[in-house]
Specification:
- The structure is a single chain.
- The protein is mainly α.
- The chain has a single domain, classed as lambda repressor-like DNA-binding domains (434 Repressor (Amino-terminal Domain), Orthogonal Bundle).
- Helices cover 65% and strands 0% of the residues.
- α1 (3-20) packs parallel to α4.
- The radius of gyration is 11 Å and the shape is globular.
């Protein structure tokens, strides 16, 4: 898996974690302190503007999904059984 595919997988994991926590982009932005526009950019264009480690830690805290789950390369196996499906 190349770095762009990995960034896309991480963004997909973040989107699923937000959905599982019933958090919109705006609500996630408010809970994490990440600007709404930045969060949208990271979700929509992860190959160009990937999430930073700090942002992922903030999202982990806001969603309750462990950081290692958000960063798993295999999104399907990473999220299975973690309440994010």
């Amino acid at each position: 898996m190349d770095i762009i595919e990995y960034a896309k997988t991480v963004a997909d994991n973040v989107a699923k974690a937000m959905e599982s926590a019933d958090l919109s982009v705006l609500a996630t932005s408010e809970k994490t302190g990440i600007a709404r526009t930045t969060l949208n950019r990271r979700l929509e264009n992860p190959g160009i503007s990937p999430f930073t480690v700090l942002e992922l830690a903030q999202i982990s805290s806001a969603t309750g999904v462990p950081l290692d789950v958000l960063t798993k390369a295999s999104e399907r196996s990473a999220l299975a059984g973690k309440g994010v499906e």
